[in-house]
Amino acid sequence: MYRPIRFIPDDTKVRFMLWSRYGYFASGIACLASILLFVFVGLNYGVDFKGGTVFVIRTEQPANLDELRSKVNSLGFGEAELQEYGTGGHEVLIRLPTIEGGEDVQRDVQTKVKEILGTGVEYLSIEVVGPKVSGELAEWSIFAVLIAIIGILIYIWFRFEWQFAIATVMSLLHDVLLSIGFFVLIRIEFNLQIIAALLTIVGYSLNDTVVVFDRIREYLRKYKQMPLADLIDFSVNSVLPRTLLTAVTTLLALISLYIFGGEVLKGFTLAMIWGVCVATYSSIFSAASLLALLGVNRDAIQIGGTAQEEKAKASPKPAAKASGKPAPARP
Amino acid sequence: MLYFSRWKVLAILASIVVGIAFALPNVLTKDMQDKLREYTILRPLTLGLDLQGGSNVLMEVDRKELINTLIVQQMGDVRAVLREARIGYKLNRTPTGVAVQITDAADTDKANQVLRNLTQPLDTGLFGTGVASHIFSLQRTGQQFVFSFNDAGLEARVSQAVDQSLAIIDKRVNGTGIAEVSIQRQGKDRIAVQLPGVGDPDQVVKMIGQTAKLTFQLVCESQPAAATDNPPPDCAAYPMKAENAQAQTQPVIMWVQTSSAATVDGADLNNASSGFDSRTNEPIVSFKFNQKGALRFGKLTADNVGKPFAIILDQQIISAPRINEPILGGTGQISGNFTVEEANSLAIVLRSGALPARLIAVEQRTVGPSLGSDSIRAGAIASVIALIAVMCFMLIAYGLFGIFANVALIVNLILLIGIMSVAGFTLTLPGIAGIVLTMGIAVDSNVLVYERIREEWRHGRSAFNAIETGFRAALATVLDSNITSFIAAVVLFGVGSGPVRGFAIAHAIGIITTVFTAFTVTRLIVFWWVRTAKPKEVPL
């Protein structure tokens, strides 16, 4: 019979709690750097939030960026940003800022650009976002991320203890901050797709954290005498194969999407790939160890867990339970 | 945990069969799809405009114009009632309404009475009381009366304008022959218009947004010497439509009479169509008045033979022909350097009636058909490769149980696509990303269960017991972890629009089908395997 390959060895005993102080340090620096990057460099806001017009064109001849740029700039709509789109050399993305004169005149930009670029150009997509809509989209997006975090906070609070909720939100903020820092660094176009990615990262990060917390809560009920730090280490090690394997399958899907999914989705997928890595890191190194810093009210956990405790007693269980140590492994 | 009653097994299998049926239309030919759609609720996935190509336009009611129209109307009403009551007055426009100065103090009370009547209640709809909401409220200080619009009244008017515009836009778009257009109200002052297959929406957007207020007004006897001259009383300055775009920057200004006696409103049109002038072969628009309009138009032309009258569309004079003879039949034609397309759309907008105010395109996103089909191809390739990669990985990592997981994954995807198809949710490119992401995350439920089973097995339980306990312990976690992801997806659905909302839908439904398959399909397969193979060890 086929024996599956173990990618992650069994019974890892990594002392994550010991590592966590370096983890805090690294995360702290990274978060600070992200904030500084965000404040002093700033995100590369796309048309969704800044307003303006974006064209993606395909030219018959290989595109000459300089020529296109001088043509578009001659219209006097402000400095055009041009970049190659995809790898073919025939496709170019042209971004023009919002022009003066209110909502009314924004659509004039495309008419004029089409006129000056003439024939031999195919317009793959044109997006015009007026100043009012872009402002609203930005407000809504911030609102969305906040609402999602608050909603999740409430859920975790109901489901676990408040310490878990705080630790969750801290690691969420960590993931969001590091993602934003990354977006600033690689100059990714920050648009609605990236907001979608950010919210999905929030969901994924939580998913990871909740799995670890579920296990911690279970062990808190099971191993009443074990010191919290050991218990957390034990929990994180127990779910480590799951955490890493799930990250791998998710990354497999995302990387296929990044390579084969076309130019439009590149930003979204890249953001997601980074987010999954950060979320995996934080669920292993920081979320659980934060719990050790906050402390856990073991009595509350015991009361909440009585029903399950009874069930656990009814079924045969490892003899090691009473000794407060994990059961010996099957050879 | 590993026991399934007969009816439960049947229910699970039935839901899978239904899921397959729901997803089926996506792999059928176009003809079969149409047949199915006709007789059943089965239909293929609805593709978003970013995949099929087309234009998404968000139009907003031009408040400035609406306010202006309301104030001008109010000024006209004030003039009319005061004139009728023979009260001397001076009228001034304010930014928020109209100020009236009564000349003779003795008339003030009488003026108060007639002016009060003008703050008519606004019909606020089914549940509105209609008492509190006047568009204009009246304030009196001595001999001065000031009408100013209030916010509640204005909001109600804007909302009303959107409702009226929806029907009119619908007629206008229908006139163009573009298929499957969707026109939806969005928020309190916006209308979202989806134009599938339209790669160059300029003409359509212009036509949709145009107020199309047409009037026929007599031209004043005196005309300006310079463009900046002030028109005499009861006259107003309008620019003349130029022959070409260059001349448009310095248009000719013409003075036109504004009194209602010299005006015929285009709202009284019955029909309009485009055609060609039989002599000059120039594109024209022919129109026909209804009875009331025909009478007024007949009288106006009969009284003013030999004089020019202006045809004014949206504050611009299209042409100002001389009245050669009374036009009594109620029909006429407009010519004014139109292109064929212009004449066509003018006929359409005149037929569908005037908007209460202009609509401005505040957001417009167009995807050409070639980018759309590129995206579909890329999305399909990426999905297949992602699926193969994930399935291979699961096979390598979990062997037999990996096969179980892969079967569950396929069922999961079929259910996801089936639900999206039958519910009519739109598949966008980010939606495809949501489906691919579901593949990656869906197997997480299997990973959770399998790792747990393995742990229990290694800790000394029997195979059956380990599997049983593994499922029980892990499925609680599956539920917990997916609910958090679901919260994020729902928030995204609530605030997102267009393509991003497509992602949120695919992701959210993917989470639901994932939890469903984890609790039913995976468990059922393992249950059958345990029952038939009676394993002594866990092959993990």
From TrEMBL, chain A:
Q: What lineage, starting at the top, does this entry show? A: Bacteria, Pseudomonadati, Pseudomonadota, Alphaproteobacteria, Hyphomicrobiales
Tell me what this protein is called: Protein translocase subunit SecF
> Could you tell me the gene encoding this protein?
secF
What species is this protein from? Taklimakanibacter albus
UniProtKB/TrEMBL annotation, chain B:
Give the domain of life. Bacteria
How is this protein named in the record? Protein translocase subunit SecD
- Origin organism is Taklimakanibacter albus
